Amino acid sequence: MTSPVNEVRHPLILHKLSIMRDKRTSAQTFRRLMREVGMLLAYEVTRDLDLTTAVIDTPLGPMDAPTLAGKKLCIAPILRAGLGLADGMLDLMPSARVAHIGLYRDPETLAAVQYYMKAPDLLDERLTLVVDPMLATGNSAAHAVRQIKQRGARRIRFVALLAAPEGIARFHTEHPDVDLFVAAIDARLNDHGYIVPGLGDAGDRLYGTR
Ligand code: URA
Question: What is the DSSP letter of 168?
């Protein structure tokens, strides 16, 4: 069975996203908002993490206090735009491990081409959050998750700011077992594989390049 698409559509996220979509928004503001949205999406995607308890002493006495169970989770940004979301996730979960997946898009075929990959050990015991703000054609997302699976990960979620219906379909054809978390789903892709209305090139807008 295909995993669901969790379209978060939280009012705070949608408001921040609207400012990010505006072409007049500076790189500095865009980067700050991406980080804030990364934190808010991390809150949603970790809602069902397992808990255990540890005995602690409060000033008034002992208690069994809830604490996160299991190995630290792994955040896996797709370079470079994924770094913007990952920064916000790390603000919320500073002890998470980080895997970096370097991909670029072949301009002719729009296929994902890998130039870098470095991941922490024991991925089979960690929840891995693969992150990229734009789930457009789905090629990079599908490639990145394939790489993470090859390194042993079994519990994987993909987190994006914006998705196109074409990208969601492509992604779930290859990875029906992976849950998607997106802030919003836009109308379509254009002929260059960009999301419309979208927000442009997320990497360029984050880092002021063109
Ligand atoms: N990558 C982007 O940065 N923007 C898009 O619209 C599609 C892919």
Answer: H
